[in-house]
Amino acid sequence: MSLSVFMTFSHLIKIPIFGMIGVSLWEYITVVLIMVAGSVTGSWLDTKVRLKTNNEKLFVVIKWLLTILATNMVARSLFSIS
Fold first, then answer.
1. What is the DSSP letter of 13?
2. Rounded to two decimals, what is the model's pTM?
3. Distance of CA 81 to the CA centre of its chain
């Protein structure tokens, strides 16, 4: 079984479990659909970019992007910016 099939199965099995503990996922369906679309688009884009670039440069760019995102998250939590 491939990793992607296993990950899909493990995430799908969480849906009824969240329902059993009282979490209503329908309230968040828009967010869930946006996250699914974002992950599919990101995976497709990553495959295209990764095959065409130098991995060392790509890792530097990814590290900078993650640093910027993390700094943004910390700043928002410290200063309650929404």
1. T
2. 0.54
3. 22
